[in-house]
């Protein structure tokens, strides 16, 4: 009997320790301690033109613009993503103070972009690609923030996510972030020129190209060794192409072919890209030729990586 | 008798599969022709090739013709197979799909009337090409 109590106590302590450990490890503050606080740009006059450029480069409108209308500046949210873990609904990020980001400080916004945390300290799902946005320069984040604040307020309330258990417990994302969110800023490669580095920044930071053009592991994180090698569509429809210099990737494309695709959506054979790449072209077509050329030069430099195997047809 | 019916059924099913493959191959060929017809005007838009009104008009005629044929090449049973990149939305919203091709044909015909010289070509042709991306966005799923 006494032994039973002892075992029960031990198990209870262990369970309590587990719960406590989970609670501590999954806290946004723990990640911040491990990866460092987010740098927020100093007070300065924001560059709204640069903010608009970052808005296009980051593809904000593709997910957050109200579906079924053409105004990319109406950021009422509502686009649904059917992921293997459940359905996510893009939230309202218009400057509406009640349902959007109207009451957010620049610090709130910068932490959302790098740490994937809401001002209330809740974890965001990484469908919001903070795994890429974390690389953005603090000044660019500040300009984007100012630009978003200049857009019209939309009063549509964000729809709640419908994630399956256990993925509906957002707290668990704290552990995911400890494993897969390194918090590092973009660091230029001194061996490469300014154009290549601009391209690397735009592609890996705001552009978040790898988020779709890479395979993911069972936890839903990009497999670093196969970055840009293509992979199953995150929504389970079709296959996203390999954009490395592999033979079945972009080996036969010139950098200007890549820049042309980003401008018009046409491949060198005048095929027009479809599916989820079509909204991406709507964003990249608005960038400058210089930004597109830089992205193209960087993408053309990606070493060849074999395309991961396709999922078997059902 | 039973065997005969079964054989007939198998044959009919086989023929159905052949027709399905034909439809998929045919729509693929037409789309390739549309892409091919875009090569010259595309190069002209980029300034890589001198403007040639006859070539432009020929391409617009190919667009309008293809837009008329295409919607009929998606019968039930051709949703999958032959590495098709057709989206299920084509069958979920057949009317919308047909309307997208009608718009493509109308835009191509309008451009054919409007384009007389290089300036009117540069002003009107890109509008026709917008149909490619907007239709592919909804009705096509890339398979790599």
Explain the overall architecture.
The complex is a heterodimer of chains A (314) and B (144). By secondary structure, chain A is mainly α. Chain A has 12 helices and 5 strands. The mean pLDDT of chain A is 94. In chain A, 39% of the residues lie in helices and 4% in strands. The N and C termini of chain A lie far apart (55 Å). Chain A folds into 2 domains: 30-180; 194-300, Cytochrome Bc1 Complex, Chain D, domain 2 (Orthogonal Bundle), CATH 1.10.760. Chain A has helices at 2-25, 28-35, 48-58, 60-64, 106-115, 130-133, 138-149, 173-180, 194-204, 255-264, 277-284, 289-300, and strands spanning 80-83, 86-89, 162-163, 231-232, 239-240. Chain A has a 3-stranded antiparallel β-sheet, with no helix packed on it. In chain A, strands 4-5 form a two-stranded antiparallel ribbon. Chain B is an all-alpha fold and 144 residues long. Chain B has one domain (2-139): Four Helix Bundle (Hemerythrin (Met), subunit A). Chain B has helices spanning 2-45, 53-69, 89-92, 94-114, 118-139. The model of chain B is unreliable at 10-15 (pLDDT under 50). The chains are: A mainly alpha (314), B mainly alpha (144). The A-B interface holds A 230, 233, 237-242, 248, 260, 264-266, 269-275, 277-279, 281, 307, 310 and B 31, 35-36, 38-39, 42, 46, 85, 87, 129, 132-137, 139-144.
């Amino acid at each position: 009997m006494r032994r039973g109590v002892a075992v029960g106590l031990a198990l209870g302590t262990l369970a309590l320790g587990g719960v406590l450990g989970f609670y501590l490890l999954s806290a946004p503050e723990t990640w911040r301690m491990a990866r460092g606080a987010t740098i927020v740009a100093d007070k300065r006059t924001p560059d709204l033109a640069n903010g608009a450029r970052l808005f296009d480069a980051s593809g904000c409108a593709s997910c957050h613009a109200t579906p079924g209308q053409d105004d990319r500046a109406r950021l009422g949210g509502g686009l649904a993503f059917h992921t293997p873990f459940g359905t996510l609904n893009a939230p309202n990020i218009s400057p509406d103070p009640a349902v959007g980001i109207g009451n957010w400080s620049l610090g709130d916004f910068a932490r959302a972009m790098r740490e994937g945390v809401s001002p209330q300290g809740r974890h965001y799902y990484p469908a919001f690609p903070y795994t890429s946005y974390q690389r953005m320069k603090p000044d660019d984040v500040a300009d984007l923030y100012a630009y978003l604040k200049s857009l019209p307020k939309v009063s549509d309330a964000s729809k709640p996510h419908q994630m399956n258990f256990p993925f509906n417990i957002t707290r668990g994302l704290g552990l995911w972030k400890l494993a897969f969110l390194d918090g590092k800023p973009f660091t230029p490669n001194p061996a490469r020129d300014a154009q290549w580095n601009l391209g690397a920044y735009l592609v890996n930071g705001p552009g978040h190209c790898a988020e779709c053009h890479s395979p993911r592991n069972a936890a839903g994180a990009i497999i670093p060794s196969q970055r840009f090698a293509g992979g199953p569509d995150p929504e389970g429809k079709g296959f996203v192409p390999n954009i490395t210099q592999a033979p079945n990737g972009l080996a036969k494309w010139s950098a200007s072919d890549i820049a042309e695709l980003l401008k018009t959506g046409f491949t060198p054979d005048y095929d027009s890209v479809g599916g989820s790449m079509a909204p991406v072209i709507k964003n990249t077509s608005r960038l400058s030729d210089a930004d597109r050329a830089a992205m193209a030069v960087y993408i053309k430099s990606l070493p060849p990586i074999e395309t991961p195997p396709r999922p078997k047809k059902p | 008798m039973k065997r005969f019916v079964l054989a007939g059924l198998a044959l009919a099913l086989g023929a159905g599969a052949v027709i399905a493959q034909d439809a998929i191959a045919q729509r693929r060929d037409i789309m390739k022709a549309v892409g091919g017809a875009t090569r010259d005007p595309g190069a002209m838009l980029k300034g890589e090739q001198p403007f040639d009104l006859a070539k432009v008009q020929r391409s617009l005629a190919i667009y309008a013709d293809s837009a008329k044929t295409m919607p009929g090449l998606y019968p039930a049973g051709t949703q999958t197979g032959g590495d098709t990149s057709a989206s299920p939305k084509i069958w979920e919203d057949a009317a919308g799909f047909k309307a997208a091709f009608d718009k493509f044909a109308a835009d191509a015909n309008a451009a054919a009337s409007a384009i007389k010289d290089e300036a009117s070509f540069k002003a009107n042709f890109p509008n026709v090409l917008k149909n490619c991306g907007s239709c592919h966005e909804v009705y096509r799923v890339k398979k790599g």
